[in-house]
Amino acid sequence: MMRTSHLSLRRPAPKVLAALLAILPVAACQNGQMTTASMPIAVEDRHPIGVVPERVVLDVNGGGAAELQSFVLAYGQEGHGPLYVLAPNGGDRRMSEAVYADARRAANAAGIPVASISYAGYEPVTRGAPVKLVYERMVAATTCGQWPDNAAQGARNEPYYNFGCATQKNFAAMLEDPRDLEGPRYQTPRDATRRDVVFDKYRQGERTGAEAETGGDGRASEVGE
């Protein structure tokens, strides 16, 4: 005759159950740390593109009007903040003031507010120091060439740390304005004249859109007719 044995299971005490539940998350976290990669997988996380200021300087020793105009135009396109005309203390004051006046004229001709041109002095290191035109622009940059691990000994089948950095660096170099990475540009002003014309036509019950060209039937050629 076969006997059936029953195993009696005792319900764990509340304190023991609470201790077991507290241990489980810790074990899961430790297990996750063992299987998680030691570096970010995405290229954008390993090699983020940063936007940093860079100083642009032009030394003016007399003459060079075309070079000064090109420098002011470049400031209007990429400058961040004012354009400084720095005169050496103890230098030729008439020359410094002439360069300042030329910079203001070049800015006015290019549509740049002359209020953005500032005049100041600086302490020269040597005698005969030039007048300096200085402004700041924003540049996009990332750091490449970092090899924290031996790429030949990786057993995780993951990309090496420097992988993709050249692509990020080339992308940063192709940006027209690195400030686009920080946020969208402001909208240009609307054409008030065109807006008034459209509203006048709307009030008079006329068509506000462009008129279709007459004589256009969509045919590209009359061959075979």
UniProtKB/TrEMBL annotation:
<feature type="compositionally biased region" description="Basic and acidic residues">
    <location>
        <begin position="191"/>
        <end position="210"/>
    </location>
</feature>
<protein>
    <submittedName>
        <fullName>Components of type IV pilus</fullName>
    </submittedName>
</protein>
<dbReference type="InterPro" id="IPR013361">
    <property type="entry name" value="Pilus_CpaD"/>
</dbReference>
<feature type="signal peptide">
    <location>
        <begin position="1"/>
        <end position="28"/>
    </location>
</feature>
<keyword id="KW-0732">Signal</keyword>
<dbReference type="Pfam" id="PF09476">
    <property type="entry name" value="Pilus_CpaD"/>
</dbReference>
<dbReference type="InterPro" id="IPR019027">
    <property type="entry name" value="Pilus_biogenesis_CpaD-related"/>
</dbReference>
<feature type="region of interest" description="Disordered">
    <location>
        <begin position="177"/>
        <end position="225"/>
    </location>
</feature>
